[in-house]
Write a structure and sequence with these properties.
Keywords: Membrane, Transmembrane, Transmembrane helix. It is a multi-pass membrane protein. There is one protein chain. The protein is mainly α. It has 2 domains: 176 residues, Growth Hormone, Chain: A; 175 residues, Growth Hormone, Chain: A (Up-down Bundle). Helices cover 78% and strands 0% of the residues. Helix 1 packs antiparallel against helix 5. It is globular. The model has no long low-confidence stretch (mean pLDDT 86).
Length: 384
């Protein structure tokens, strides 16, 4: 019997789904240098290889809503999570570049599917519960990312082979799936027949654009914070990861506490204040006279930006312009395009105008989110 969307079982299953997606993605990161060494890839070849993951995700995301509509969230997510667990050991052991490329494409497609379906599931569960839950759901993605990355790194550091480290994380994911899969909804309120893919329009396009900016800022922190700290603020290379660590830690804390904050202050107030705080954090990190102060800036970016994307998913569940099974994948695709395309855009701008100017543009975009935020209440009167 399918659990009611508002039940605690359905809520816990949603949290497990986000944890699985986050830990799967993060588990791959420490394995990248090993894959590069085994396949004897130079930096350019590795870059092309990593692009396969992004291509797989972007292709699968728009299709995942159709699959969830026709087959149900439970079946689609279970299949995607199983594929993720099967792909990790191959990525951790293959010596052949084309095998790695194909597996990364499949891994990316499964990851994109799992992410979209988890968000469709989350929208349904949050609406049924009648209270803010989305930030906490996304917080489990961040927590899963920390556990996946730290777990694999710890296993590798004690001398475990990459294959066995990947198998260990895969078993953890399968265990989480086995405990909670029966509580995933077999069908959601958005279950329906529909087109294979629908272009976002109306308010969904606006929300997607804001989500793009939020994820672009996350991608900037991931790919460029260490470079900026070492090249501009003279931080030792061995310590340059502290910028992203400060950002990731405060983002996880911000998401885990976001539902409580939204319940008391309202969606739009948290969106506007958070985006403004994130913009100030980017500006501080960019213009700080010392790397110590810059770390404070990165922490502010994580805290302020933590709930922007979760709020976009909550708002897309309140709109009536597009069915959820189309709107959520469209929002996810636009958002993740920010992570994939954004850092490259920053690199191009930095090449032309310098990295400082590129970072200040990111701050300006986050400030734009804060300025647009209050106007969303006119298009979505039910947003509080």
């Amino acid at each position: 019997m399918m659990p009611h969307p508002a039940s605690r079982h359905a809520q816990h299953a949603t949290r497990a789904a986000f944890f699985i997606a986050g830990s799967s993605l993060a588990a791959w990161a420490p394995l990248v240098p090993y894959a590069q060494a085994r396949a004897s890839l130079n930096e350019a070849q590795l870059g092309l290889l990593l692009l396969c993951l992004g291509i797989g995700s972007l292709i699968a995301m728009p299709l995942s809503g159709l699959f969830a509509s026709r087959f149900g969230c439970r079946k689609v997510f279970t299949l995607a999570a199983t594929v993720l667990c099967a792909a990790l050991p191959i990525l951790a052991s293959s010596h052949t570049s084309w095998v790695l490329a194909v597996t990364l494409f499949v891994f990316g497609a499964a990851l994109g599917t799992a992410d979209c379906v988890a968000n469709i599931h989350a929208v349904t569960v949050e609406k049924a519960s009648g209270r803010p839950l989305m930030s906490g759901f996304h917080g489990l993605f961040s927590l899963g990312g920390i556990i996946g990355a730290v777990g694999v790194s710890a296993l590798l550091s004690i001398g475990l082979a990459p294959l066995y480290a990947a198998l260990s994380i895969a078993l953890l994911i399968l265990l989480a799936l086995a405990i909670t899969w029966r509580y995933l909804l077999s069908h959601t309120a958005s279950t329906q027949d529909g087109p294979l893919f629908a272009l976002p329009h109306g308010i969904v396009l606006v929300l997607g654009g804001l989500c793009f900016i939020a994820f672009l800022a996350e991608g900037a922190m991931l790919d460029w914070s260490a470079v900026y700290l070492t090249q501009t603020q003279n931080m030792a290379t061995a310590q340059s990861g502290l910028g992203y660590a400060a950002f990731a830690l405060t983002m996880t804390i911000g998401r885990l506490s976001g539902d409580w904050l939204i319940h008391r202050a309202g969606l739009l107030r948290v969106l506007v204040s958070g985006a403004a705080l994130a913009a100030a954090g980017v500006a501080l990190a960019t213009l700080a006279p010392s790397w110590q102060l810059a770390l404070v800036g990165y922490a502010l970016v994580g805290m302020g930006g933590a709930n922007i994307a979760p709020i976009m998913y909550s708002l897309v569940g309140k709109q009536t312009t597009m069915p959820e099974a189309q709107a959520v994948p469209a929002l996810t695709t636009l958002g993740y395009a920010g992570i994939l395309v954004g850092p490259a855009m920053i690199g191009f701008v930095a090449y032309v105008t310098g990295l400082t100017a590129a970072f200040l543009i990111v701050a300006g975009l986050l400030l734009l989110v804060a300025l647009i935020g209050p106007t969303l209440g006119r298009s979505l009167p039910q947003a509080q």
